[in-house]
Design brief:
The protein has 168 residues and is mostly helical. The chain has one domain. The chain is built from eight helices and two strands. A hairpin with a 6-residue loop joins strand 1 and strand 2. Helix 5 crosses helix 8 and helix 7 packs antiparallel against helix 8.
Length: 168
């Protein structure tokens, strides 16, 4: 008779639900970003771009779907730096998407969910290198935002100075 202990499965390093979760996220991403194709072109768009056409709340609804992907990535153990990049993609998609017409075109082309799925798959394949790359991107983004803030302050000071000179 075989030893019952030797028949037990060894625990898997990767959770068994992970591939099914990732496949569901891939299907959701295809639906959101590339479900439809414009005939005669290779340009694809999804329901996220269509929902974004609804004035006021369309992009907010799209952001909720996008945040679901980020939430699932967090549950799968994606690093904080990668999650921050993913949220940055969602924020940019949502904020620029609020601009009438131009934002809708940007929304159809940016495909934040596709970018976020690629980040998730990269993390699952090579978590250490993805975390390092995401950290570098966040540092560069932070530096860029500080430069932008400094530029806005400088322009504000110049405009205030011109207004004061004109008032004299």
């Amino acid at each position: 008779m075989a030893n019952p202990i030797s028949r037990r499965r060894t625990p898997s390093v990767v959770p068994q639900q992970q591939p099914r979760q990732v496949e569901r996220l891939k299907a959701m991403t295809r639906l959101l970003d590339s479900a439809f194709q414009i005939p005669g072109t290779r340009f694809r768009f999804g329901i996220d771009a269509l929902i974004g056409l609804v004035p006021g709340i369309g992009d907010a609804i799209g952001a909720v779907f996008s945040c679901f992907l980020v939430f699932q990535a967090a549950r799968l153990g994606v690093s904080t730096a990668t999650l921050a990049r993913m949220m940055g993609n969602v924020a940019l998609d949502t904020i620029v998407g609020e601009i009438p017409l131009l934002g809708d075109m940007f929304d159809a082309g940016w495909k934040a969910n596709t970018k976020n799925l690629a980040l998730l798959e990269a993390h699952l394949g090579k978590p250490v290198s993805t975390r390092k790359a995401s950290g570098r991107v966040l540092v560069l983004l932070g530096a860029g935002l500080l430069l932008l803030l400094a530029g806005v302050i400088a322009v504000g000071i110049l405009v205030a100075d011109l207004v004061i000179v004109q008032m004299r």
